[in-house]
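Appendix B, example 12.
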Amino acid sequence: MDQSAIPETRLGGISVIVSDNNMIGYIKLEKKTEEEGQSAGQDKAEDDNEVERHELLTEDRLKQALKEKGITFGIKEDNISMLVKRPIYGLKIEVAKGEAPVDGEDGHVEFYVKRDSEYKPEYKDEEKIDFKNLEHFQQVTEGQMLCKIIKETDGKSGKNVFGTEVPARRGRPPVSPFGKNTVFNEDGTILFAAKNGVVRFLKDHIDINEVMQIRSSVDHMTGNIRFPGDVIIDGDVRNGFSVRSGGSIIIKGVVEGAYIEADGDISIGKGINGSGGEKVIAGGNLKSGYIESARLQVEGNITTDYIIESDIKCGGDITLIGRNELIIGGSIKLSGELTAKFIGNERERPTRIEIIGIVFSDVKGIEEAKKERDEYTGSAAKLVEILKQFDLSAELDEDDPRTAQISLLKQQLSLFKQKIDAASLKIKRLEDESRIEYPGAVKCKKKIYQGVKIYFGNDMFQFDLDDIENSRIFWSDGEIIHGAL
């Protein structure tokens, strides 16, 4: 470019500005005012000529300003040329831009089996559900591909306007899905089942549980069952017997007053008759044709046709599906939503439902404050023991070195007591700030009868003599709300 052809422009100054992340460089031109152009030294023509030469706006001068600032990379020649042709004053003009780093992609896992929460048996809402024949668990065979591991990438470094390298973040590696009875291929990118069994996810890890199958009922011929993996029972579990599993349990018949315990899910094809008073405990979900006179403790969800006179504690939802969809009598505590057609009956059978609350508090802050208080209490106790070694009743001279020691120990003890009191106040404040929320609800498609009591903690839902229909009872903003479905 012929710089001599560019009109001369008188400048007040050139400012070079760099963004906080050093990735963009700007030039800001300041135009000289008329007053600044008239100086007391106008009678010195040679000085005027020197000023005019110095103030000539050229590309070289702008580049020199960038160089003096240390900007050497990503210079935008077109922007500088345009700025010289058409100067813009008082605004920042971008004249250099670094090359941003490109972070590596995170690794991930492509699963070819479904997670426990995603795998559900297929059935139509309106048809009678045959719990006995539903495929409740996902089974695999030895050598079956379980998932593919896509590894993380390195990324590409960038440069800022000073020419300094800006490192890229390497992608995060995927969580290994390796679990019990699984095996990787040679390069660690594909995971296979090492044995026949049932798929069970423990967080992001795939376990293949080997299955114990009882081809008959659990009775005197089999004795009690205890197995670390999954258990399948083709018949019933008779009164007085027990089945314990470190995995999941499928019972195709009836549970008759038996003790059933599984770390995972429990599926009972016909139903539970708990007249023997024994408990059914599930670490996962429970599915049963019916539940009558039973004692249940379920960490996950419960799905059944009807519940009569049972004592139930459920950590998830309770969904009634089937021909009856009713609850009569007993006591139910749950954290999630209860969905039924009928709750109670025309004879006003006492039926209690309680939604369990979740306490929201600064657990970490409370624990840390308690830890501090315990440490201060321990230190104070040690100081008390040291002070006991001195005869505090004896009068000591000021020059006696023990006088200074005792005084220092007492000061330290007083300081620890202050810290103990401060920690105790903090604990009380954090505990007072805690609140309870009730995420669950009661959804009744048809009718809730008199005799039914619904609690959210200690608060009871009140309704008058008339039965209520098509209702959703839930908690919002500190009170119980009666809404319509």
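The CA atoms of residues 80 and 445 lie 73 Å apart. The chain has a mean pLDDT of 85.
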